[in-house]
Amino acid sequence: MKQIEAPQRDSERAQDNHSRPKKQTGILAYLTYPPRVLLFFLALLLQLVGAAAGGMGFVYHNSAPFMFGSAILWLVWLGSLLLIAIPATDRLLRSAIKWLKPAALTILAILLLVGIGEIAFLKSGWWGTESSPLLDALHRVFIYNDGTALCHQASQNLIEGQNPYAGANIVSAMLEFNGGFDKTTPLREGHLADVFPYPTPEQLEAVWQDAIKSPERVPPELESRMCYPAACFLLPAPFLLLGITDIRIVYLIFTLPALAYVVWLAPTKLRLPLAGALVASLAVWNSVASGETGTLCFPFMLLGWVLARQHQRASAIFMGIAVAIKQLAWFLLPFYLIFILRAVGLKKTLSVAGIILGIFLATNAWFIAIDPKLWLTSLLAPMTDNLFPLGIGVVTLVTSGLVDIQSPLIFTVMEGTVFILAIIWYFRNCHRYPHTGPILAMLPLLFAWRSLWSYFFYIDIIVLAAVIIDEYRLLPAPSQLRINT
User: Fold this and answer.
1) Which residue in 24, 47, 177, 283 has the fewest CB atoms around it within 10 Å?
2) Model-wide pTM > 0.85
3) How far apart are CA 287 and CA 452, in angstroms?
4) What is the pLDDT of residues 307-358, one digit of tens each?
């Protein structure tokens, strides 16, 4: 009997081993991370390709294939972020972990190589009058745009005792900081009043060449207002006093500690993928390198959101600073307050709102007092000035020439409607999907007359960091999610 049972046990053991998934070896064996974390790397690739397609569409004069392709990729990117924000995705993608692991590692390697390639390209000086328009445009990404130049100029004016809102001059700012006419924001005024949907490079250069003849006089065709709240120039000012001559270094000084702190807050087992995601987020680093003003606001929005549940006072301070830097944070604010309300109740929410309002008033009160009309018209300029349509959202139908709509009114109505609906939905579902807030906050901008891709660059990092810190912090190891092969 024993002689019969032994072979049977061996046969059963062999069948059992055959039915189990083979144990992975090498580096893949260490990628025992939740599917949502691995999915983020696919989202990064979508983001990069979508931004590249949009950039090529702009370089090639609003080319419809590039612009539509970019819009579709950005929509898929937002959809992938929603999946990352929804807890049930870990269960839904459990069977996909086999291909998510190698895909995430491959994308990480690709993005790191692309980043190294960008650095090598910029250092090589391989561009010039004979280079292709695309290569020349890539190089020109990494110079001051008008917002950066105006913020730097505003900080200098503040140091010199001038009102930064009264002293804003886009022509002198771009000349001082080696910006280009193609990095300015044209207005549908003067010689460009009858141009639509967007001026050609030749038309913009003609305006610019005329402007630099008398830099003290800003032409009506160029946006020249200091359009942001006061913290955008108050924060860099002390660093400029210390001798820093490039405001992008200031942006980096604020960004690096915030990202490092977020990695430190993450559960030990998930610090490595979070750090890898941050390093591979080329959109963030490219934004810093180009001086995109949102990179000053980003670290404060990030810390404000990820600290909201556990450290409300610190969170409120960071969110207050973000709101005092750029209007982009204003879209996030209602969702942030709902998140706080659902987490800790009305009393603490009112306290948090008071801190945010106090910081905003503390940084802007002086400029409101000395010239309230100038301050208000400056901050409202992005909504009231006669801007050309531009972006990656629904407005692509206009910029590509498919639809002839020359008034932003319908887009403003769509943007406002989506914003209100998003707030209502989040209020009702925040307890189930708390970290959909940053995504819903930016969703209305897809319907705006101006839906620049730079508005959306940062929400993916905020969502991933919040999910890792808030939802996985109580688990001793990701393997306890029972999702690994």
Assistant:
1) 24
2) yes
3) 13
4) 999 899 999 999 999 999 999 999 999 999 999 999 999 999 999 999 999 9
Segment 101-109 shows an average pLDDT of 93
Cis peptide before 197, with omega less than 30 degrees from 0? Answer: yes
Q: Which two tokens stand for residue 41?
A: 């790397």
Report the pLDDT value the prediction gives residue 320, as an integer from 0 to 100: 98
In the predicted model, is pLDDT for residue 368 greater than 80? yes
Cα(first)–Cα(last) distance of the chain, in Å?
A: 37
Q: For residue 135, report the phi and psi dihedrals to the nearest 5 degrees.
A: -65, -40
pLDDT confidence band for 136 (50 / 70 / 90)? low
pLDDT at 315: 97
Handedness of CA 411, 417, 423, 425 (dihedral sign): negative
In this prediction, what percent of the chain has a pLDDT beyond 70? Answer: 85
451, 391 Cβ separation under 8 angstroms? yes
Asked, for residue 434, whether it belongs to a domain, the answer is yes
What is the rounded distance in angstroms from the CA atom of residue 360 to the CA atom of residue 230?
9
Identify the CA nearest to 460 among candidates 433, 438, 430.
438
CA distance 468 to 306: 9
> Is the pLDDT assigned to residue 482 strictly greater than 50?
no
Domain span holding position 243: 33-143+229-481
SS3 sequence of 300-361 = HHHHHHHCCCCCHHHHHHHHHHHHCCCCHHHHHHHHHHHHHHHHHCHHHHHHHHHHHHHHHH
Residue 208 has pLDDT above 60, yes or no: yes
Compute the half-sphere exposure of residue 454: CA atoms within 13 Å on the CB side of its CA: 21
Contact (CB, 8 A) for 182 and 231: no
Residue 212 lies in a domain: no
Tokens 């990030």 — which residue? 302
CA distance linking residue 224 with residue 218, whole number of Å: 7
- With tokens 């707030």, the residue in question is 423
Q: What are the CA-CA distances from residue 224 to residues 64, 189, 242, 315, 371 (Å)? A: 30, 13, 27, 33, 17
Residue 118 lies in a domain: yes
In whole angstroms, how far apart are CA 364 and each of 164, 380, 453, 455?
12, 14, 28, 23
Output the pLDDT for position 52. Answer: 79
Strands (E), 122-248: none
Domain assignment of residue 1, yes or no:
no
pLDDT of res. 22? 46
- Measured CA to CA in angstroms, residue 247 lies from 14, 89, 268, 354 at distances of 65, 40, 34, 30
